[in-house]
Amino acid sequence: MQSSKGQRVLRFLMPLVFLGFAGYSYAGVEGAGFEEGSIEGDGANEGALEGSGTDEGQSGAEGISDGEDGETETSSRLRMLWIRLTNDVAYGGRSGHVALVFRNRLWIMGGARSHTQQTSNDVWYTRDGWHWVEATPAAAWAPRLSHCGFVYDDAMWIVGGNSNTGRRNDIWRSRNGVDWEEVVNTTPFAARNRSTTLVYDHAIWILGGRTNTTRSAEVLQSTNGTVWDTVLNPADWGGRSSADSLVFKRGMWLVSGATSAQLRTSDVWRSSDGLQWNQVRADAGFVGRFDQANVSWKDRLWVLGGDAVGGLAHDTWYSEDGTDWQQPIPADAPWTPRSDMPAVVWHGALWVLGGWEGRVGGINQYASDVWIGFTTEFHTADLDHDHHLSLWELLRIIQFYNANGIECAEDPDGTEDGFVARPFSGRGCGEHDADFGPQNWELSLSELLRLIQLYTVGEYYYDPAGGTEDGFAPGAK
After folding, report:
1. Residue 413 three-state SS
2. Domain check: are 183 and 102 in the same one?
3. What is the Cα–Cα distance from 55 to 274, expressed in whole angstroms?
4. Which of 306, 339, 379 has the alpha carbon at shortest distance from 284?
5. Who wins on pLDDT, 226 or 441?
6. Could you tell me if 369 and 335 are in contact, meaning their C-beta atoms sit under 8 angstroms apart?
7. CA-to-CA distance for 139 and 159, rounded, in angstroms?
8. Residues 395 and 352 reside in one and the same domain
9. Domain that includes residue 246, residue range
10. Quick one: 340 and 469 in the same domain?
């Protein structure tokens, strides 16, 4: 009886697996190759507050995705893995809410809710991202959206925003999410929404925002939340709203937003003291936008989605210095295009929670999902993420080889790695790292040998700029 492909290859490979194949040189293997005026209204219905982006977002990806954007060459770009924890989170679809990490919990508060199309003042928290607890259905502060939130002096704080009666300039804080103290009823600065706040150099800072008369160019500072100083007015970045700010590399950074001169910007600014602002980039390379999410993560600045030139976006960008910007792989996240969504870093991962997805039939659409993003420094075959391929992980790759194909599982949670071993029938998702030369949903012998090399050496590390064709290198880093 003629031996099957699997039997023949196993007779050849398995002695190498068990005897050690560290001397094999991989380099020699063949084939290895919207106007904002409609956004900034005062009504309770967020329809008067949102941009006109797209009427309907595109369908989001299911389960796990590290996407595919046609990348064919070796690159130093980071690779992203996105996991959707839920598409029906307990607090429901919403946008313009605040998300904070406080006392090892992830909190959300306020925003516009899909089931009422009204602003809210509920507060929720989670310890794991899946199970959410309503701390209070109605906090002491008025329902609002487009407010700011931050953690300072061992408490959660919220500032301003837009309520049913208009823009606010009150300040509240809480140490448990249930009991809220009004720190200031009426601040010395004008009521506003769509400003941005950060904590830097032992102080609270508020930058810009939309008042009842203008877009603010103020830089405001306080060390206690009660007494406020106007550090600068106007700042060089000009009156703007719907921008985002963050602390990064010993400085305050302001990214994009809506200005009087340009509705959607793509500029980047930095200051170490709030007085002197340096325009790092007039045009960062991504299309102009506002109501995007920005975070500092993995020693990089990140820009996520927003209401961009051309419509709502779900593209992602990062920079190590604020000057040079590039996109990870995939460039577009699998979540639907959206704006006005919070993003936070928690447990080492990037979290995106809800957002505004546009209008359908004049009705605002709010996302009710929770996504986590990782930089994929681990090989897809390394299921326990220990930078080491075990025998059973290698055997899984051999299973794909024997099946003459690999494709994404209909239920990503139904298999150990989100893939199934069978000839490709068109069900694509994120590529498997073992399928690289070329990526064709079928593993070649040279691709299998590469995995055996990583297995026998004992360790591997992610090395996107190292010149290897799969972006990994054998050995310890």
Report:
1. helix
2. yes
3. 39
4. 306
5. 226
6. yes
7. 14
8. no
9. 37-375
10. no
